[in-house]
């Protein structure tokens, strides 16, 4: 069964070995279909969830309210949801956004503004989402668990980023030098080596830097 592949994690090795043996230990309790990985089973089980959002026009049902709203537009003769064109530009770095409010929010990266205060420790954040994520450190709430190693995380994005360590996936590739990265922010930080962009400005001395840290 030795194919020469090496893995940094024992659980990933076990999952890989099952591709050779054909073993599928994770069985769906609803339809008894079996899977090699627990994560694949969990994803499959969502297909059995009750479709609770019903269209009043044709009785078609959906698992998500967003898809129901999208479907209802067909009955009204309206066009499907379109992406908002990104034509509002940040004057500091040139990044484009669909709305002016998004630019204002983004500019906090450049200004260092942190209007969201944690009532527990007094730490401030530029975005409300960052504050909410930080507050979970005080409560100990880490609801997102990796099916491979059972490590838990504060937010889904951290779990997805962690899972790439099991798979070895690095989907974000630099077009300049071909180097690959786990996440888009890691790629963007790397690309500043090529572009020379330094978006982070010190409020004390005015010196600019390519990274916030």
Search tags:
two-stranded antiparallel sheet, Double Stranded RNA Binding Domain, alpha+beta, two-stranded antiparallel ribbon, repeat, Snail/Krueppel_Znf, 213 residues, zinc ion binding, 37% helix, DNA-binding
Give the helices and strands, then pairings.
Blueprint lengths: L9 H12 L4 E2 L6 E2 L2 H8 L7 E2 L6 E2 L2 H12 L11 E2 L6 E2 L2 H7 L1 H4 L4 E2 L6 E2 L2 H12 L4 E2 L6 E2 L2 H12 L4 E2 L6 E2 L2 H12 L4 E2 L6 E2 L4
Structural write-up:
One of its GO terms (cellular component) is nucleus. Keywords: DNA-binding, Metal-binding, Nucleus, Repeat, Transcription, Transcription regulation, Zinc, Zinc-finger. The chain has 213 residues and is α+β, with helices and mostly antiparallel strands. It has three domains: 11-48, Double Stranded RNA Binding Domain (2-Layer Sandwich), CATH 3.30.160; 88-137, Classic Zinc Finger (Double Stranded RNA Binding Domain, 2-Layer Sandwich); 142-212, Double Stranded RNA Binding Domain (2-Layer Sandwich), CATH 3.30.160.60. It has eight helices and 14 strands. The protein has helices at residues 10-21, 38-45, 65-76, 100-106, 108-111, 128-139, 156-167, 184-195, and strands at residues 26-27, 34-35, 53-54, 61-62, 88-89, 96-97, 116-117, 124-125, 144-145, 152-153, 172-173, 180-181, 200-201, 208-209. The chain has a two-stranded antiparallel sheet. It has a two-stranded antiparallel sheet with strand order 3-4. A two-stranded antiparallel ribbon has the order 5-6. A hairpin with a 6-residue loop joins β3 (53-54) and β4 (61-62). It is extended and about 65 Å long. The two termini are 46 Å apart. The model has no long low-confidence stretch (mean pLDDT 78).
